[in-house]
Amino acid sequence: MLKTLDSLGEVRGKRVIVRADLNVPLDGTTITDDGRIRAALPTLTRLVEAGARVVVISHLGRPKGAPEDKYSLRPVVARLGELLGQEVAFATDTVGESARSVVDALEDGRVAILENLRFNAGETAKDDAERLAFAEQIAALGDAFVSDGFGVVHRKQASVYELATLLPAAAGELVLREVEALRKVTDEPERPFVVVLGGAKIADKLAVIDNLLGKADRILIGGGMAYTFQKAQGLEIGKSLLDESKIDVVAEYLQRAAANGVELVLPVDTVVAAEFSADAEATVVPADGIPADQEGMDIGPKTAALFGEKMADAKTVFWNGPMGVFEFETFAAGTRAVAEHLADAPGYTVVGGGDSAAAVRLLGVDEERFSHISTGGGASLELIEGKELPGIAILEEGSK
Known about the structure:
The structure is a single chain. The protein has about 400 residues and is of the alpha/beta class. Helix content is about 35%, strand content about 15%. A six-stranded parallel β-sheet has the order 5-6-4-1-7-8, sandwiched between helices. A six-stranded parallel β-sheet has the order 11-10-9-15-16-17, sandwiched between helices.
């Protein structure tokens, strides 16, 4: 059982540090998708209403342990303030003079955001002692800690793991909701249990497939990763994405799926183009007829319909990874169709974060039509793989 906010007791007047995941996409200083900010609201609102002095910490992007203007959390401050209905204070550093003065000035029920955690090398350091030293600096700013950044709980980082060992710690509303939703998929899913996997890198999904070959009833594979499967079957894939080093592994998975009675469904047609470009001319070809000078860019309409049929009677569906280059409208149809079929499925439906969640929003599919949309692509995949996540394990009752 995870420790909840209730375990912290009375928080009025206490400085509560909340590790959120505010790693939003930016176009310059404009937020293009505020989904992660909105996902943080239930925990922040509850703490505000309880009279806590809320200190929000997060990362944004991948700075190399030093400040970079393009990765500043400043754009998030205004948007969070709009959503909370109050002015949010901002510290221009994470554990320095600005952070201390901003936190000291906080009043009950007010919120502050500290600057990007990853502007400090200690946040992501490989050395345990270095991470702990940074976590101690953060802990000095608070009286309690709430872990609510599900997108980072699979990382052993200072603000995710070590900080939870230094202060009274609890899981936030988002983390609790995510873990509950994903355990419905992993522990005892209602059947038929269908998994839809896509995305560019097959290496990211191999452990998931390995784990699910003994659990899922059907695994539908699209996106760039499908071409390695097709190559393993001896098909011509042209210039499509290929991980040659994984062909033998994939061939073994095909055999295991057949032996375990798992239906492993691959594309039957493909949208191809001569180049990776938004305005490239698209052609639909059979999956076994990709021209040598063409590149697969999306699943074809027959595959989209087939995947829909395979989801139609599902009691549990988990989807992670787009079916094609959905950012280009010409090649978005497959991902849109899968999202629509998933939304129409009668059972418990989970969108596994990352590009899948981004696609749902970009393509305009109503988020309310899904049972759950995860905020963490990597974290959700690792839970589905059956891994222990450091940021979850440290929040279990009796963990410290």
